TrEMBL record:
InterPro entries: Cpn60/GroEL, Cpn60/GroEL/TCP-1, GroEL-like_apical_dom_sf, GROEL-like_equatorial_sf, TCP-1-like_intermed_sf. It comes from Methylomagnum ishizawai. This is 60 kDa chaperonin. One of its GO terms (molecular function) is isomerase activity. SUPFAM superfamilies: GroEL apical domain-like (SSF52029), GroEL equatorial domain-like (SSF48592), GroEL-intermediate domain like (SSF54849).
Amino acid sequence: MSKRLVFDGEARAGILKGIDILGRAVETTYGYQGPCVMVQHRTQGLPPFFTRDGVTVANSVVLGDRLADLGARMLRDVANAVSREAGDGTTTAVVLARAIARGLLRSLAAGADPHRLREGMDAAVKLVEDDLRRRALPLQGDMVAQVAEVSMRKEGQVGRLLQQAYAEVGPDGAVTVEPGWTRADTLDIGEGFRYELGFLSPGFETDPVRRAADIEGARVLLYHGTVTDFMDLIPLLEAVNEAGQALVIACDGIDERPLQGLVMNVKRGVFRALAVKAPGHGDRRRDWLDDLATATGARVLVPERGDNLERAAPEVLGHAAKVVADADSASFIGCGGDPVAVARRVAGLGKEADAIRARKPGEGSPTGNLHDLEDLEARISALVGRIATVRVGGTTEPEIKERLQRAENARRSVRAALEEGVVPGGGVGLLQAREALGRLLLTDLDWQRGVAIVSEALEQPFRALVGNAGINPVAALARIEAAGNARFGYDASSGAFGDLVAAGVLDPVKVLRLALVQAAGIAATVLSSGAVVLNEQSGLPHLPGFSAEWAAATREDPRA
Ligand SMILES: Nc1ncnc2c1ncn2[C@@H]1O[C@H](COP(=O)(O)OP(=O)(O)OP(=O)(O)O)[C@@H](O)[C@H]1O
């Protein structure tokens, strides 16, 4: 394959072109007024889908110009990193990253020292993070619903239902969103066992929008060991399959080859199955597995005790009406264990916890006691756990999918807001952080340029949001500055300037913080792209991890 070499100015200009093209496409969806983008399915013959989600638009764009595609890929990476870490705020991150990339390239063209630029930027980002945390307002009153409604664009009942859901299960409780397949949005509160360890491979996902696996009618295999041979699983997979059920395996791990075998069989529809990490860590895992066994009515298989997976009878399996898992959590809902046994176990754990609480200070190791107590409390809440499910309705499948995506963003936004609080939205939270940068003691010119790049980027979300609402950004900025009130901004839903906190236009600090940190991360790649080596190849670049054949067979969603 022949290669093409591109240097300095030309390399950077090509990269910026890609950043601009993708940035513009993503920014179209930004804010309250942002319309949907229609994306053609990657597989011929499958219908297009509609989205307002920044990361989804970003992942759908592949540019024919290879140099520009490198730039687009940088933005895609930023969007994906924010989506992974914060779950929302991907468009904000793209807007910030695009502004930062532009600022950097301008400064480099003017001969600035890349190291000093970077140092100035890093100092500025850190200061903005601290400033956002300092200005954070804790959630109170209707703020949970309001944060959710910013993502939902004040449409439907999802915001109100998420507020109700968190009120029912508590701020650390388990809340999931699912497609409802009816017109209205609804809320279900069910009993279930949830813990914070997820599936063993993203290949188990059944819903690419939420990046989650949903399994109905599950038999539960609890294995305190590592599966090393796919054949060991076959007898139980077949028995469960014949009964029209699905096998959910919670285990220490599965070696790579058997895991691939399992995922492949699931994708091809041979078996319905899901493998998740067993609950608990280290020495405590056995106790957690016993709890889950009590909840689901299973028996834990322990190879060290001589239990054999291949010869295990289906009687060792427990039941759950539904299991939902993503990369970070697993929920067993409607478990089939004996309620009396569960109550007895909870009472036993409660007594153990009381005994630790009653210990005199200095008796036993204080940190050991604390960890034991925390673990017991976590086990009790898992056993008596309640799981809230918000079902997202709509009239057509594309509509439900599009709303579901926003509802998932809304849920993650609420979680982020519960963790670190909120600031006024509409771009104002970031805009106000410029003031903190004014307090930085400036050293040399290039360092100062680095700070200025961040400061200018902080204006961009505000400019883009009011611009998308049809307001002149320069005039809007002047009004904000004249108001001298940190909550003052433009509410696109009412079309009026005023107090954004009172109007319920709020952004989670964690989302804004992570969006800025990830956006600034683009600097490392831009600054090191002095020369670029390109593979000259005909046709569009290959989409990683995507097979058109597979997509056609499984109707894989292009957002996966
Ligand atoms: N009524 C409103 N008035 C002003 N700004 C609003 C309003 N509703 C939402 N916004 C702002 O829009 C921004 C969020 O827009 P959007 O949901 O399109 O992008 P994102 O959350 O950054 O990315 P994504 O949702 O694509 O992951 C937030 O800063 C929010 O405060």
